[in-house]
Amino acid sequence: MINSSKKNLISTFSSIFTIRIVMIYVTCYETFQQDGEPFSIRPLTTITVRNNNDYLLGIHCKSEDDDLGFHILKKGELYGWKFHVNLRNSTLFFCGFSQGQDNKGVFDIYRAKRDFYRCRNCTWDAKKDGLYGYSNLPQTTCMVFQVVK
To answer: Which residues partner with 132 through β-bridges?
Structure first.
């Protein structure tokens, strides 16, 4: 009988412990969500591309894991997405730009080794003479493409 009561006591404590762990997990999960996104060790990064040309700009962005599809931007329109940089700091998004059938090039729009400390809200302006990147940490500009005449 003593063994039976010990087993019941251990079973009860085990059940209470499991219930508490589940309650802590649920509470922390709700508390640590960012903008409706689950909590991540890495900050949320936002990429925005703006068409500052007088023509329709085609843009097709991809990463190793995601194909974001083809989009056409009118003058002044924006296209963007959000993501968390992976723990290996190897996240890479690249985009191909086009004007009708004329390919303008493929560019690394976000490369973690270059951009992780440069920006969290990375803005790119597509202009006639190139693609300009703007940072919010601190305010800097980098040109990744220039049209040579």
So the answer is: 125, 143
Q: What is the pLDDT of residues 88-105, one digit of tens each?
A: 999 999 999 999 999 999
C-alpha distances (whole Å) from 115 to each of 37, 76, 111 are 21, 24, 6
- Name the nearest CA neighbour of 46 among 107, 114, 93: 93
Q: Measured between alpha carbons, how far apart are the two ends of the chain, in Å?
A: 93
Spatial CB neighbours of 10, under 8 Å, sequence gap ≥ 6: none
CA 102 to centroid of chain Cα atoms = 28
Sign of CA dihedral 70, 75, 77, 81: positive
* pLDDT for the residue 41: 78
CA separation for the pair 121, 47 (Å, rounded): 6
Of all helices (H) and strands (E), which one includes residue 5? Answer: helix 2-31
pTM listed for this prediction: 0.66
For the segment 107-114, the average pLDDT, to the nearest whole number, is 95
pLDDT recorded at residue 147? 47
Total residue length of the chain: 149
